[in-house]
Amino acid sequence: MCDSLTKKLPRDQIVRHQRTNCPKDKIVCQYGCQNKFSVNQAHQHNEENVPKHLDFMRERIKSLLEETEQKQHDRYDRHMGNLKRRLSSLQRDVDNLESQTQEVNTRVDSLTSKKKDQEATASESFRKDLEALKLREGVMESKSGTFEGIIAVLNREIEKCASLLEEYDRQMRLDREALTNSERKCKSFERALALRDVSMAEQNLRIQALETASYDGVMVWKIADFSKKRHDAITGRLTSFYSPAFYTDPHGYKMCCRIYLNGDGMGKGSHISLFFVVMRGYYDALLAWPFKQKVTLMILDQSNREHVVEAFRPDPASSSFKKPTSDMNIASGCPLFLSLERLGASNTAYVKDNAMFVKVVVDCTNI
User: Fold this and answer.
1) Which domain holds residue 299?
2) Rounded to an integer, what distance in angstroms lies between the CA atom of residue 152 and that of residue 332?
3) Same domain for 196 and 74
4) What is the pTM of this model?
5) Which has the minimum average pLDDT: 87-101, 256-270, 324-338, 347-361?
6) In the predicted model, what is the mean pLDDT of residues 311-325?
């Protein structure tokens, strides 16, 4: 019996099932979260918490680096402290040895001088002193040999410390390389997140376009934040832009509008230019071409209902109305649709609450 699945399994399968992760077993996040979830939810959890996991990884790497560096420094400090104490002790012994040697040399000089002056009367005393001096000299040579051994040991300790320092430097290089690799992985995760955000934004735009699309040949297009878009058109930052797509019916022609808020061609700087665009649609192979339906373009007066209206029938010979071979055909319409003077007149309200409304009506009869 598996406790998580509450399901009976054959005896020959229960051992294999227990050795692998049961899909309903609760596990803890491997990156350091305190969350618990089933094995089946692990992939979803990891995708949704990438930024948090990156923070955990940075903190863990930083903590490990600081701990390693502190241990290396402590070990180095201990070795250097021991070395300094032993060197200090050796220096004191060497100083004592030099002092004693100087004293012996002084006494040798003194005795030699006395030997010359008092050789006849003090030969026996001088001989004893000389023997004692030789004895002390032998002792000093023995001590000197001992100190040479100590110096050799200290030299080996110094070489050992140098080796430890080289090992410490090598470990630090490895740690820096590990940190660089971790930072590279973090940047890779961040790029993946950025790409996912771009993909989500594109999906949202597609969903918004589907939500606002009409399928009866009539489109009412609200141009919000009009003053900013008009300023962008005047400065040349964005001279024109397109409306959302609309359709004559769910399986019909796909169309949109293009507007120049500071005019285009002969209307540049004096008029708003408005154009109709035939777009490539999913069902174009089933439709009649060229496009022949009557098109009515309007900019709506939001107060007095003095709408600006222009209507036309497509020219069958124009490439603007042939079957599209790219995303959209060349726009066709009115470069002198609405004068900027009339736009700003006090008795009209083509712009109200910083918004303009454009309406397009396509005759859907005989399709």
Assistant:
1) 218-362
2) 98
3) yes
4) 0.48
5) 87-101
6) 96
